Amino acid sequence: MADTPIAEAYDHGVAASKIIKEVIKNNPSLTKTIRGKTYLMYELWQTIGALFKLTPVIAWTQPVEKSGVLIGWAARAEIFDEQGKLVASAEGMCLNEEDVGKGKTWGDREEFTVRSMAQTRTAAKAFRMKLAWIAVLAGYEPTPAEEMEQVAVKDEANKTSPPICPDNKLVPKDHMDTTQLARASTAVAQIKAKIKELDGKEEDIVRITAECNAADGLDTLTYDEGRAYHKALNDYLKRLEKVVADGA
Hints:
This protein has helices at residues 5-26, 42-51, 111-138, 149-160, 178-197, 202-211, 223-247; strands at residues 31-34, 37-40, 55-66, 69-80, 86-95, 99-101, 104-105. It has 248 residues and is an alpha+beta fold.
């Protein structure tokens, strides 16, 4: 390949992807397989960052409250290069109501672990903003495993407690068909656009998306889950519209 900045970046990326594959070969527990796809855990994102001499810093953490009650923690992570230049950043959260499996939620754990997970997710997301292409070159998914936690928990719950028909026969999940998915995608996009027109907060959209387990796309949701996600976004839009109307 020609000796150009792009070629050098690509060659560096290929070299890094080979190292990551070797690390995974020796430490397969650093990945999670969800719905047939492999996701990298935070330690691997740290490793990729180290190969590019990038350092993560948690800029802040803060409690997430609703009506004066603590419901989780939020955090901001920033990624710096070896010259101290900010090259990527992200914000995220971990909410007490999120499932962790076996009928438990993050709210059942110590508060410091909820705060810590908010930092871990956010730092992984910040690395992903800069280095997702390395994961792709290595043949893995660009989304950090920590962001897929709710999908994994939901799938595990469906394995252990599948829905039962009245005649006691197992039934498959009712996912949206192509037409329903197209309509849902259009409707959700329109609502998000209206929310942004009314200066709705991006973090609120992200939170609603996470709470409705829609972070991995509408195609991962059942029809009822898709309707619930649409309703949650629409309810938020109505609240914004009311605030605007009251202030007019």
